[in-house]
Amino acid sequence: MNIQSEFSTARQPWGTNRPYPVAQRWYERLDLENGVTRFWEPHVHPLEQANFWHIRGSERDLLIDSGMGIVPLRPSFPDLFGGKEVIALATHTHIDHIGAIHEFEHRWVHAAEARQMAHPSGVVTLVCADIHPQLSKLFVEAGYPPFDELLIDAMPYEGYDPRQYRLRGAVPTHLVHDKDTIDLGDRRFEIIQLPGHSPGSICIWEEATGALYSGDLIYDGPLVYEGPGMDLEVYAQSLRRLKAMPIQVVHAGHDPSFGRARLIEIIDTYLRRWGMGD
């Protein structure tokens, strides 16, 4: 990585003696085929460095998840969010998936997590000392690096004080359920309720392309399956349901996308680990 192109030369403490660089841009963007764009925040700790997905439709667009909301998302990409109606859909309501959902008029979430989206709890700040020690221990045991003092390794702009960040709640405008459909005009998606990682965890299925947007149910990295609101037996049932579907590509909530062979491999690995293999 070219450090000069990635960071400005200004360095700024936030109240401790440790300096933080100032990022020249906060979001990374990758335009894929078939009208799909992937976003992520490279300066967020790997645990919370989520993918969020914009999908173009002929009549309206779909945004699946919305990152941490540290920097406003919508004005950062006026070519995608400047005109057409956008449905902002949360796969679940953890901090790294609903941070910017308040910026959108149409806010969809599963009914089981409606209250949590309106009134977030759990991890809601950037200060790692605010995270319960037992929760931090679970994340490290899952395979993530230990926390430092902040959930970010750079500041989004000069003068930013990360102590002022708090996950902002947003009242849902529409509640989704298993087997609901989303119509973008020329594209249709199905909501699949697959709990385990959280009570109202959903995946979004586009049968025409064989693409699954899986949120945090499954991704190609250390899965988090122990913690508040998580249920291992239910998680295993959800993974078995995925295995039976004709999925060709998974666009996940973390890490790069992957194909069917890797999907089966990940599922089988975790089912064996949990002593629930077929």
Q: How are the SSEs ordered, and which strands pair?
A:
Blueprint: H1 3-6, E1 7-12, E2 20-23, E3 28-31, E4 36-40, E5 52-55, E6 61-64, H2 78-81, E7 86-89, H3 95-98, E8 106-110, H4 114-118, H5 133-142, E9 174-176, E10 181-183, E11 188-193, E12 202-206, E13 211-215, H6 232-243, E14 249-252, E15 258-259, H7 260-273
Parallel strand pairs: 6-7, 7-8, 8-9, 13-14
Antiparallel strand pairs: 1-2, 3-4, 4-5, 5-6, 10-11, 11-12, 12-13, 14-15
Helix pairs in contact: 6-7
Main pleated sheet? 7 strands, mixed
CA radius of gyration is 18 Å
Helix content: 10-25%
The shape is: globular
Tally of DSSP β-strands: 15
Distance between the termini: 43 Å
Strand order of the largest sheet: 3-4-5-6-7-8-9
Instruction: List segments where confidence is low: pLDDT < 50 over at least 5 consecutive residues.
Output: 1-10
Q: Assign the structural class, choosing from mainly alpha, mainly beta, alpha/beta, alpha+beta, or little secondary structure.
A: alpha/beta
**For the residues shown, what is the average pLDDT?**
93
How big a fraction of the residues is strand? 15-25%
Question: Helix-strand pattern, N to C?
Answer: HEEEEEEHEHEHHEEEEEHEEH
Question: Helical region count?
Answer: 7
